[in-house]
């Protein structure tokens, strides 16, 4: 049989990058396949290959074992552990120039949760870091990675910025080893709490490019929340920038108030959620994807504008991308998360938004399909104001934040949490959490409080549901409270507690 002697483009690229030497190539997951037949390198010269051996991860280990819904974060009963992901004996493969991996693939695309695929990606990452560990001192070039298969590499591990070539089902990377090393030092899943990168905490203040960011779009309903969020972060003596992304629905007056509260404003064009119903509450919340465009920052912590922060959380900027608190099953809650802005990541997200689904039609469902390998933050960094049927309605004293689900505090009276007035919203009711938001409000400058005024419509809604709660004689008794909130409108006397 006669073979074509011209080598593939990717191989010629590597030969050009790594000149005048025999290429030492580590082969990952090629099993009994002939490597040269598979990649079309018949007749290649100056190539030495090494079959990287490692035990395949047990089929008994499922994705939910790596990403459990709950772990004992406080280590009351036991220290959380992760299942073992077997690795090679790395000492056998310390001088590799290239690692080539055949990526297992049950289905192409994002949202592919497969433990063996993760193992192959981690094997490649470890080989590269260990092979390139001394390249700086020896003036060697760092090793390269080649991935073959319809699924490609996991972009949570191999950054799109490091990609040199992509042709159909083949990818070539020249990874930045310092960043890649961070990836192999963190837990293999959310089965343990993420760990910070200590070297990031040693930067001088003028070297730090980090910011808190929130997004306002489609209406001004959350302007007050965003002002309170900024003020709460400032009240914790944070040293990071505050950046707010706003579309054209936010008026000049509101933008003035937001700037006065501490936000740097960046105007954006909103992005529609392709899987949301028309006019649904989450129709435009893919606008959150704009945070990946903030390339002037190395890292940003996104926080939804229905949060307030009670303790300084600047330390969490030293955690890996993407870190977040857990939600249900193996998914994370996108209400607060740390990401590394990236133009190519943003473009990938935009390109995939139509073909990749979302379980809830919004950004959280989409992001959980795009970032299946994420890292667990403590739940007290995203304390959800939701209690089910529990009679205990106090948040932990050591909570860093509160995520105000249900009716927002600024949409209620200061005197009590109006989530008590509706049966369907009582799971979100908490007097203590409500009071904590208003403590932030009372520390705000008077000129900022005007942005939290009740509209006549909001006031009428509260009176309507207070009247219904009184008629139903709800046992919580909040409808009996004498309201003194000066924000209420005298046009709607508080004694008119009837359902009209």
UniProtKB/TrEMBL annotation:
Broad class of enzyme this protein falls into: transferase
EC number: 2.4.1.-
InterPro entries per the UniProt record, alphabetical: Glyco_trans_8, GNT1/Glycosyltrans_8, Nucleotide-diphossugar_trans
Record keywords, A-Z: Glycosyltransferase, Manganese, Transferase
Single GO MF descriptor: glycosyltransferase activity
Signal sequence, start to end: none
Family: Belongs to the glycosyltransferase 8 family.
Protein name: Hexosyltransferase
Organism: Nicotiana sylvestris (Wood tobacco)
């Amino acid at each position: 049989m006669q073979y074509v002697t011209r080598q593939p483009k990717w191989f010629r690229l590597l030969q050009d990058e790594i000149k005048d030497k025999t290429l030492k190539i580590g082969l990952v997951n090629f099993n009994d396949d002939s490597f040269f037949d598979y990649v079309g390198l018949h007749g290649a010269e100056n190539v030495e290959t090494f079959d990287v051996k490692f035990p395949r991860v047990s089929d008994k280990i499922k994705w939910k074992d790596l990403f459990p819904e709950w772990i004992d974060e406080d280590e009351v009963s036991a220290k959380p552990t992760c299942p073992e992901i077997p690795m090679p004996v790395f000492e056998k493969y310390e001088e590799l120039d290239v690692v080539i991996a055949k990526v297992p693939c049950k289905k192409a695309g994002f949202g592919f949760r497969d433990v063996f695929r993760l193992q192959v990606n981690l094997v490649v990452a470890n080989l590269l870091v260990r092979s390139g560990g001394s390249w700086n001192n020896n003036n060697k070039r760092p090793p390269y990675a080649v991935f073959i298969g319809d699924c490609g590499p996991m972009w949570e591990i191999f950054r799109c910025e490091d990609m040199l070539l992509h042709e159909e089902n083949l990818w070539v990377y020249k990874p930045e080893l310092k960043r890649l090393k961070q990836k192999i030092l963190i837990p293999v899943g959310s089965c343990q709490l993420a760990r910070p990168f200590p070297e990031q905490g040693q930067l001088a203040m003028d070297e730090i490019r980090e910011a808190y960011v929130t997004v306002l779009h489609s209406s001004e309903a959350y302007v007050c929340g965003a002002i309170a969020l900024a003020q709460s972060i400032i009240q914790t003596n944070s040293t990071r920038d505050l950046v707010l992304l706003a579309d054209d629905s936010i008026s000049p007056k509101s933008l003035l108030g937001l700037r006065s509260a501490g936000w740097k404003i960046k105007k954006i064009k909103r992005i529609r959620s392709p899987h949301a119903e028309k006019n649904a509450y989450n129709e435009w919340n893919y606008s959150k994807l704009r945070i990946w465009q903030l390339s002037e920052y190395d890292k940003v912590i996104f926080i939804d504008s229905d949060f307030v922060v009670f303790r300084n959380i600047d330390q969490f900027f030293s955690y890996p991308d993407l870190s977040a608190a857990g939600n249900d099953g193996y998914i994370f809650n996108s209400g607060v998360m740390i990401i590394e802005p990236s133009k190519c990541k943003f473009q990938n997200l935009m390109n995939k938004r139509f073909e990749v689904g979302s379980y809830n039609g919004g950004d959280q469902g989409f992001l959980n399909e795009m970032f299946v390998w994420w890292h667990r933050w403590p739940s007290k960094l995203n304390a959800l104001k939701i209690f089910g049927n529990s009679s205990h309605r106090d948040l932990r004293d050591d909570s860093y934040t509160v995520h105000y689900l249900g009716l927002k505090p600024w949409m209620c009276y200061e005197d009590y949490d109006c989530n008590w007035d509706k049966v369907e919203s009582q799971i979100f009711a908490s007097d203590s959490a409500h009071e904590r938001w208003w403590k932030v409000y009372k520390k705000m400058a008077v000129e900022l409080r005007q942005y939290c005024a009740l509209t006549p419509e909001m006031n009428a809604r509260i009176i309507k549901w207070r009247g219904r709660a009184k008629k139903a004689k709800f046992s919580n008794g909040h409808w009996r409270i004498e309201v003194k909130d000066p924000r209420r409108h005298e046009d709607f006397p508080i004694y008119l507690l009837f359902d009209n």
